[in-house]
Amino acid sequence: MTPERPVVVLCPKPDDETVSAARFLATEIGCPIQPRRGRTIAGVFREGHDAVIGVSKTHASFFISSHEPPFLFHPGLAKNRIGSLLRGEPETLTRAAGLVEGSTFFDATLGRATDALVVAHAVGDSGRVVGVEANPIVAAVVRLGLRRSVVPGKAVTAAMRRVEARQGDHRDALAAEASDSWDVVYFDPFFEKQVRGSVDMTPLRLVGCHDGVSVGALEEAQRVARRCVVHKVRVDHDPPPAIQDWNLVRGKRRTGYLVWHKG
Ligand SMILES: C[S@@+](CC[C@H](N)C(=O)[O-])C[C@H]1O[C@@H](n2cnc3c(N)ncnc32)[C@H](O)[C@@H]1O
């Protein structure tokens, strides 16, 4: 669902950096900016907006109603996964996708960019990570976070600066890429049922695109990938028919990755 009347609302007494972040978001989304004027988020919704992006010194919060949790960018679990890689421990996505220093990775379902951050760390400065996100407000909030957030631990901040976030539908984005141009193309669509314990995903589930990955998109990915296409799955559910003969690499809990290798 793409909101039709979004608005960016500043926190009370914003500093210059907050105003500049709000301007960035308003330009990316193509919507007005308003001062807070003492209103609650519910009060802003009552004025007829269908999305409110509240901007404070530390965060941009994307609300689609005043009673549901907002979507925010934060490196979250990527911090732990990058920590594991730094300790030399195995990381399932990096292993499933066969990523090494210098690999290129096209993330067709960017979301909060958690996976993209882990991959950006794994492939390093000489690699490349591009992510495409369908929801324009999610894409803008994530792009802002990737450019400006600073978190403890240099490796996570460095990974954030390396992910290139684009807005669009992955079907169009893949169609525009040359054949064999990315080592890995990756899909992580929403599971029909949320994995228990992943409540952190709830705000993104509320605003993200639930279309699933079409056979056409998979075919485009197979054309664009030089080495492999990776599709995250729940191991306790049947995979989509088009990918059921791909190779399974099991992850933690009930998730895994189905991998198709070229050639
Ligand atoms: C489960 S989330 C991905 C989470 C992501 N891997 C992460 O680490 O944060 C799926 C995301 O893909 C996006 N999406 C779904 N269909 C898409 C499409 N056709 N093109 C681009 N993005 C899409 C959704 O809006 C949502 O943000």
Describe the structure.
With about 260 residues, the protein is α/β, with parallel strands linked by helices. It has two domains: about 5-70; about 75-260, 3-Layer(aba) Sandwich (Rossmann fold). The chain contains ten helices and twelve strands. The protein has helices at about 15-30, 40-45, 75-85, 90-95, 115-125, 135-150, 155-160, 170-175, 200-205, 215-225, and strands spanning about 5-10, 35, 50-55, 60-65, 70, 105, 130-135, 165, 180-185, 225-235, 245-250, 255-260. It has a seven-stranded mixed sheet, with helices on both faces. Strands 2-1-3-4-5 form a five-stranded mixed sheet. Strand 1 (about 5-10), helix 1 (about 15-30) and strand 2 (about 35) form a beta-alpha-beta unit. Helix 1 packs antiparallel against helix 6 (about 135-150) and helix 6 (about 135-150) packs across helix 7. The longest helix has 14 residues, at about 15-30. The radius of gyration is 19 Å and the shape is globular. The termini are far apart. S-adenosylmethionine (SAM) binds near residues 132, 135, 169, 208 and 211.
List the helices and strands and how they pair.
Layout: E1 6-10, H1 16-29, E2 33-34, H2 41-46, E3 51-55, E4 60-63, E5 71-72, H3 76-86, H4 92-96, E6 104-107, H5 114-123, E7 128-133, H6 136-148, H7 154-162, E8 163-167, H8 170-175, E9 182-187, H9 202-207, H10 215-224, E10 225-234, E11 247-250, E12 255-261
Parallel strand pairs: 1-2, 1-3, 6-7, 6-9, 7-8, 9-10
Antiparallel strand pairs: 3-4, 4-5, 10-12, 11-12
Helix pairs in contact: 1-6, 3-5, 5-7, 6-7
Bound molecules: S-adenosylmethionine.
The site of S-adenosylmethionine has 21 residues, from helix 5, strand 7 and helix 8.
